[in-house]
Design brief:
Blueprint: H1 16-34, E1 59-64, E2 70-72, E3 75-76, H2 79-90, E4 95-101, H3 107-118, E5 123-127
Parallel strand pairs: 1-4, 4-5
Antiparallel strand pairs: 1-2, 2-3
Helix pairs in contact: 2-3
Length: 132
Amino acid sequence: MNIREEPDDIPQINIVPMIDVIFAILTFFIMSSLFLTRSEGLPVNLPQAQTAQSQQQNKITITVDREGNVFLDRQPIQVEDLAEQLKVMVGNQEQLVILNADEKVEYSRVIAVMDQLRTVEGVKLGLSTRRP
């Protein structure tokens, strides 16, 4: 009996599907990381300050845009209602409140907002700036 051995097919690893999967996963992580940035307020042109420092803690953001509109954590609010709403949000604890005011807004509008903030117990005020 003559048994003839036939050569088996040489096993090959096809890496093209693996590369497709890796690129799909990479694309997912890149796209999802773009949404991880947290915007603290509405986009305004902040004034510059040489001594600007980043604050890392829970904070409430108040934004005054170029037209003088006031927003509390991205929700429009009247300046007169600001102190009452902050008292509810702050409660009995200390809370950092960041004021983002556009550099073109009237100075009196910013002072009116700051005056409302000073009436709330436990509010620590921070003014937002950008580095030059």
